[in-house]
């Protein structure tokens, strides 16, 4: 157990010196008194609320519940706002700013007089950004997930975030629904605060945080609009105070076993492809040597058992919560998980899920009746992706799991639009549609363009899937035969930069290969003729980003933020 004198905040507040006088008098300027801090841990609440962040709209209120818990347990709350990483409103892509938010939060925590932190996030990139920050900071923290929004609803139809937007957009373009219906869907698909309620990136990432042991049990499944969420927020406030006294630091939680657990949970939920990048980045921040091969190995053995869209047939996160949520899913996984892993409540994962109940075995399937027999993701390698590419076999037409077809290549999104919007473009469902220069540097920021729109020429003939290939990411709510994250990316001269229309591309998901049927000599000749594109940014954050971002297979973290880069950052001199 820690003593008050050992706390970081005591260095700021308790000393009998000029600096501490300044800290105390300025705390008193805010109306606080000695009783607020003396003998108490100061707890940061990183609040990612903003008016451009619909998924965190409730954080303005919810943070008060966290504070209530902190006060109940004898701590002093200190709310510190941070970048909200709004998936919908940040351009060119929220991924460009994940590392910026991670850096920002790490430095906010380091620079302030705080002993522990509750990190509030949930919209896609906010979860990995906050977790990466907390790991690198190194002091006790726990994660409070925003919770999913309620099921979408319009005209008696249940609507799922993202998935149904994509689906009905294709129907709109094919002329099978009216403008009126399209407008109704617009108003009904996101009808409460909270993050996307399919098993998209947000739900996947919060489940991963819980799988890591970084949330209180069950926290990631509670809908944002459910009063259980307020109670969970207060419980997080109470718990973090004890974590500070117990000195329960993240290095004791984020072990290799915890990473395997998080990846296993991700696979079993039918996770978003984005999870691959963020999992690698988080694990590597914790100093764990973790890569695509580790994920693929888990993907080979862990089946998808959460019957949640887009991998599952009909259910959404609200149904998952009513069925028992993540603790029930982890209980079904049983020994597949390392149940001895420590979690933020000070107990093991096994202890936390011992009493979990699965109330609906169609929503949370037993291992004997999975939604999909293998894990959600597969990693492909070959002469087109020496460092790997990712596909979600559960979300695509199985006839594309083994496919060879001629490439149609777009160098940019505007180029791609010309192809997909032309109703007479000469294309067959056997073609492989390729978009390049959409990777971490080329995008820039690796936009979620990877679910390339189905060409109108094919939609009009009734086709709804084809093989698509890019160095982009795709939304976690996307579906279709899309190969993503091709590394190295085309923009820096990866092999994707070298292919031309008509080159034959061969994909074999069962044996995990992705190749272009060209000889090494042909590839070398084309490489010699390739010229690098002009830089995207000549100043500012984008310039720093392009200099330091790593490729997708390394999690797109900045090289200088990884754990192996340089000595640990010293504590600030107060
Ligand atoms: Fe925030 Fe989907 S837009 S989670
Ligand atoms: Mg998304």
TrEMBL record:
Keyword Cell membrane tagged: no
Residues covered by the Dihydroxy-acid/6-phosphogluconate dehydratase C-terminal domain: 362-556
EC number(s) on file: 4.2.1.9
Keywords: Iron, Iron-sulfur, Lyase, Metal-binding
Dihydroxy-acid/6-phosphogluconate dehydratase N-terminal domain mapped to chain residues: 40-352
InterPro entries in the cross-refs: Dihydro-acid_dehy_C, DiOHA_6PGluconate_deHydtase_CS, ILV_EDD_C, ILV_EDD_N, IlvD/EDD_N, Sugar_Degrad_Dehydratases
Highest rank taxon of the organism: Bacteria
Top EC class for this record: lyase
GO molecular function: dihydroxy-acid dehydratase activity; iron-sulfur cluster binding; metal ion binding
NCBIfam families xrefs: PRK06131.1, PRK13016.1, PRK13017.1
Family to which this protein belongs: Belongs to the IlvD/Edd family.
Protein name in UniProt: L-arabinonate dehydratase
Gene label: araD
